[in-house]
């Protein structure tokens, strides 16, 4: 498993937590940052998946 997949998954989790906290306290900026972290994590996870596929081929 590529390290990008691990880091990406961690960013997704971090983003979910950050977005939930931002929503709970009414902080739109924190919520938006959380959403951005989730997207960044999903992209990094996808890149890691592509690297794994290429390595296994």
UniProtKB/TrEMBL annotation:
<dbReference type="InterPro" id="IPR050423">
    <property type="entry name" value="UPF0337_stress_rsp"/>
</dbReference>
<dbReference type="Pfam" id="PF05532">
    <property type="entry name" value="CsbD"/>
</dbReference>
<dbReference type="InterPro" id="IPR036629">
    <property type="entry name" value="YjbJ_sf"/>
</dbReference>
<feature type="domain" description="CsbD-like">
    <location>
        <begin position="4"/>
        <end position="56"/>
    </location>
</feature>
<comment type="similarity">
    <text>Belongs to the UPF0337 (CsbD) family.</text>
</comment>
<dbReference type="InterPro" id="IPR008462">
    <property type="entry name" value="CsbD"/>
</dbReference>
<protein>
    <submittedName>
        <fullName>CsbD family protein</fullName>
    </submittedName>
</protein>
